[in-house]
Input
Amino acid sequence: MSRFAGKVAIVTGASRGIGFAIAERLVGEGARVCITARRPEPLQEAADRFGGPERAIAVPGKAHDPEHQAEAVARTLDAFGRIDVLVNNTGTNPVYGPLLDLELEAARKIFEVNVLAALGWVQHVHKAWFAGHGGAVVNVASVAGLRPATGIGMYGASKAALIHLTQQLAVELAPAVRVNAVAPAVVKTRFATALYEGREAEVAAAYPLKRLGVPGDVAGAVAYLASDEAAWVTGQTIVVDGGMTCTGGV
Output
């Protein structure tokens, strides 16, 4: 397929896991990409796997750092001349347990990375390109943002905020810019290891499709929302969860 031929995307948190799979899918369908993540070495390795500087550039930095955001946008425009898609994939969840035991500084960090960073990226890309040319934003949320989840309450609250932010931006940036989200359940990545390690079969048994997600499952949904096939879709959150939320669980 070549749905993204001639188009350019920025994908945050793309050195591994879901972000890597999203960038890989977009490149495979013709896009050129700027990928970001904190650690330079694995990020550059990912860019090299995508075809090197003619297809992918790597801009390391902290996703919530405004200077990093500005640099990545500027380097993308310098390298590729346009930005058609922004995928806010970066997320963090450094704590596990009840909210009453949560250090408020950790809560601030979660919201800074999971919510405010996404808004910052949209602001930078919109000012630099989308305002005059249009585009598509896809935010990676979570089913934990749709209903309570044991042990990851603040992460879920941040993803609920991200889902609402998606809807608000969809209204404010229409008609030129579409803004949507995906909400995965447990996907087999290093980030989610604590949720299934040593008990994958038990966790998967709660899903109607009887398996956990893999990064490619999410990448397919993101590619659809970013593509012209979703030209009349905005402000929506596609749940990618193997049917788990149908059973009432998270």
